[in-house]
Amino acid sequence: MKLIELLELRWREIFFRLEAGDVVPPTLQLRTEGVMEAAVAAGQASESALLDAMEDVHRQVRGVSITSHLGKDWHQLYPFPQIPAVAHRAPVYPSTPD
To answer: Is this model's pTM higher than 0.90 or not?
Structure first.
């Protein structure tokens, strides 16, 4: 299996878990980020190619791009190789009658 195929599988799992409201184990996220860094270091992919591929997987799984979900400057909040593993906001219900 090529590194990009492995990354796509892992991104898919991460984004499926988030879409389902589940927790993403830190080990899954951190190891995936490590593979992203290794792919660039080994010359198998560029940062921009990996970010574009991750954006495609996010769009397929969650129905929106990372950019439309987090804004055009999301790269500043999540510099490469960080994965923007952001869950949906939880609903807030008033706890007092006022």
So the answer is: no
